[in-house]
Amino acid sequence: MARPLRFISLFSVTILLWASFGCGSQRGSSDQTSGSQAVPELTKQVIDERINDTGVWDIPPESGTGEPISWRFDEDEPKEIVVVDQQIDGTKATIILDIKTQSSPRASNLRVLSGRIRTEWRMQTGWVLRRWEIVDTENISMKYRDVPKPANQNSNR
Predict the structure, then answer these.
(1) CA separation for the pair 59, 68 (Å, rounded)
(2) d(CA 113, CA 71)
(3) Which residues pair with 69 in a beta bridge?
């Protein structure tokens, strides 16, 4: 008889823990709207991580001649990111970033990009996970320039 009682008490403890975490999550989400510290901080590290796989459209060439391009930031591309302005209002944020980046050396079109973009952020909340995500981008002053490939990369050896 000791085994069934042990199982029931373990089950009861599990239910109590689950219920207490569930109540904590509900309290945390109401605190989130009231501006408490339940909202995770939007740090430079978070910005650097979340910019990956984000796109920017209508990037004109530096030269003024040529077609605008779209760009999707890749985790492996070298990036220099400076936060120019950051406005946070509860679970929403607008951040202006000054970015310098370039395509991979193996890319068919080598490009260098630099300038400012506006990013709109929202706190995404799930059952357990709460994190800042970029929901929109706007090109402010970012431009690109094509970089010619070195002569030794143009030949097929």
Answers:
(1) 5
(2) 9
(3) 59
In this structure, what are the phi and psi dihedrals at residue 46, rounded to the nearest 5 degrees?
Answer: -65, -45
Triad 37, 40, 42: Cα angle to 5°: 120
Q: Report the alpha-carbon distance of residue 132 to residue 47 in Å, rounded.
A: 9
The predicted model scores a pTM of 0.71
SS3 88: strand
- Any idea which residue has 């009682």 for tokens? 5
By the 8 A CB rule, do 65 and 57 touch?
no
Tens of pLDDT, residues 36-59: 447 789 999 999 999 999 999 999
Query: Locate tokens 């199982």: which residue?
Result: 7
Helix ranges (DSSP H) in the chain: 2-34, 44-50, 151-154
CA-CA distances (angstroms) from residue 128 to 22, 24, 31, 49, 101?
A: 10, 11, 15, 20, 34
Look-up of token digits 């209508």: 58
Q: Tell me, what amino acid is at 70? A: S
State the Cα–Cα distance between residues 17 and 13, nearest whole angstrom: 6
Determine the Cα–Cα distance for residues 105 and 5; give it in Å rounded to an integer: 65
Structure tokens at 41: 């901080």
Beta bridge partners of 145: 112
Tokens read off for 139:
């090109």
